[in-house]
Amino acid sequence: MKSSAGLHFKTYLLIFLMVMFGPLGNVLLGKGMKRIGAVSIGTPAGALDLLSRILTSGTIWLGIASLITFFAAYMLVLSWADYSYVQPASSVAYGMVALLAHFMLREVVTPMRWMGVLLICLGVLVVGHTPPRTTEPS
Amino acid sequence: MRELIFYLLIIGAGTGGELCVTRAMKAVGEVKNFRPAALVGVLARALRVWWMWAGLTLMGTAFFSLLAMLSRENVSLVVPVTALSYGAGALGGKFFLGEQVTPRRWAGVLLVCIGVTLVIMGRR
């Protein structure tokens, strides 16, 4: 097992990037889609028009870039850190989404919703503390 | 009703896509060499597996369904509801991939489900 300050530093750094960029990506996608308006696909022409509005939205591309950054950090950290160590960190992202939605999009997050987010984080944490592999490698 | 269909697509197609990609990657084999040239080789092998294409199609469907829901509802509602994929993932892992889902993992999934219920009930 590798154990060094450098390894710890890059692990924490990448988990930090995951927890920041995953929720940020979702919030930016939300902001972009709110500007486009409620999606309703009636005709093929309508679907094409919607697709072009999505693909020309800078906010949505920023969201996609954030999600790609999240995914790259996730894949990189999994190349040396245990899945069971990294996966529980993803639970923090649910809390981060609620925080970012509250402060960036001015969404009202009720106390009951905060409680729900807390339970989801706890649930993901419990799932993360189970064995990451239960089948024989092929 | 339309919202329910989108949520089902986000959770069902998203989880189904991840399960198909997992199955494809299991067929490709464990990645031990992380050099760029080796990773390109892994990607090329993965794209020759049918499951990978099925997975990517399903994940694309889930992504556009997520966009559709985000155009209608708050991010602080939509993203937590997608955590139900942990339940779908546990079911899919057990029945599709033959994984052993421990009672502790089911307990975690139950907590997630209760949390999602509270998030939905916390709507103003």
Descriptive account of the structure:
The complex is a heterodimer of chains A (138) and B (124). In chain A, 32% of the residues are buried. Chain A has one domain (5-128). Chain A has helices at residues 5-36, 44-55, 58-78, 83-86, 92-104, 111-128. Helices cover 72% and strands 0% of the residues of chain A. Chain A is globular. By secondary structure, chain A is an all-alpha fold. In chain A, helix 1 runs antiparallel to helix 3 (58-78), helix 1 (5-36) packs across helix 5 and helix 5 packs antiparallel against helix 6. Chain A starts with a helix and ends in a 10-residue tail after the last helix. Chain B is mainly alpha-helical and 124 residues long. Chain B has one domain (2-121). Chain B is built from 6 helices and no strands. Chain B has helices at residues 2-28, 36-46, 50-70, 75-81, 85-95, 103-121. In chain B, helix 1 runs antiparallel to helix 3 (50-70), helix 1 crosses helix 5 and helix 4 runs antiparallel to helix 6 (103-121). At the A-B interface, helix 1, helix 5 and helix 6 of A face helix 1, helix 3, helix 4 and helix 6 of B.
Short description:
The complex is a heterodimer of chains A (138) and B (124). Chain A is mostly helical and 138 residues long.
- How much helix is in the residues of chain B? over 70%
Multimeric status of the protein: heterodimer
Number of discrete domains of chain A: 1
Q: What is the residue-mean pLDDT of chain B, rounded to a whole number? A: 85
Would you tell me the overall average pLDDT of chain A? 82
Shape of chain B: globular
Helical content of chain A (DSSP H or I, runs of 4+): over 70%
Shape of chain A: globular
Tell me the number of helical segments of chain A per DSSP (H or I, 4 or more residues long). Answer: 6
| Series of secondary-structure elements of chain B, N-terminal to C-terminal | HHHHHH
